[in-house]
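In practice, a research group might receive sequence data for several interacting partners and want a quick structural hypothesis before committing to experiments. The following worked case mirrors that situation: the sequences arrive first, and a predicted assembly follows.
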Amino acid sequence: MATADFEVKQLLKAYRKGLISDELFEAQIAELRNGEQNGHAHYTYNDKPVGSEREMIMQLLDEFRCRENFAAEYLNRWIDVSDQECARGGLRVVQQREAYHARVLEDRLRELGGIPQCTVSAERREKDLALYAAADKTDAEKLLAVTSRITDPAQALKYITSVIDQIQEDQQSKELLRSLVQDEMSSITWLKEACALLNPAQ
Amino acid sequence: MATADFEARQLLKAYRKGLITDELFEAQMRELQTGTGKYTVNGKPHASEKEMIVALLDEYRCAENFASEYLGCWNEVSDQECVKGGLRVIQRREAYHAKLLEDRLRELGGSPQCTPTAAQRNKEMGVYAAKDKTDAQKLQYVAEQLKDVPKALSFITDVIDQIQEDQQTKELLRSLVQDEMSSAQWLLEAHQLMNGTKAAA
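A structural hypothesis for the assembly, expressed as tokens:
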């Protein structure tokens, strides 16, 4: 693997010239070896290195599944107390999108030999449900809260797109994730449009 | 209602001047009273907004349910991993659309009635479930049907444009159209990738 060879040579040069410490040299060689053992360079998920493409995909599938499942739950609670018919119509679609995403992601996770493990923290559950399930908060207020969290949609979806960019082998998961990102963009677009409609002064 | 008043005046003028027959005058006045003809789905008149919505929900539900079925069959015999990944998403989209549309149909007092014809079933299944046809060939078939995406979706968007009262259904349909655009975009991109030709936008 040309890139790994080049990296080793550069590391050795730097080490022999005394430019890097024993510890750094050892750590960098170990990282290179770890990558080589899996036949690929380096994979990262949420900026943390992972041993293989498959491991990276499974971590994402589980976390994405977990988020979508929870979103389907709190959106359902929002629909129950929604005060605007037009918001209710769009929310029903977004909620169903999240629910089917969770199912597709869990199916793929299990096909790859994984099992759902990620759960939403109690703190996060409490915070989000307090907002979305609140009968004393208007749809306009909730939409403002949601959209303030997604000022940069590309950044919000980066934990998915950065994995997609790294996938070279598993084309099925790659295309599946790419299609789900398209759905996420549709949901974000709707939420922003609905927010603008119900909060004309903002 | 200003428009109905105007129509009635014009009809009366035309009738009094002898420009239209007793029968036409009577039929047009009846239509104005019942509202028949004001709302249409695929060119068919409906007496009320609700009736128009119920007709669309049933027809659209039926189309989505069938699409979910044949896409499932295609996925089972797909010969490309990357196609399989996108198909799985589109198939699930169509399935949740069918469920959501049926839920709304029932909320409005309707019940599922529309079913695909035997000819339609044979035609689509003959393509999508075929093991001897490649994904590239199937994508070519789809792309030919999606040459004009807005036109293909006009049976839904025309109804959306006519809805004035039922804002929940209007927004629900608007959001589903967004999904349809995503599916069409993916199918056309996959067609371009597999067939090496520039698909119609």
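Before designing any experiment, note the following. The first strand of chain A starts at residue 43 and ends at 45. Chain A has nine helices and two strands.
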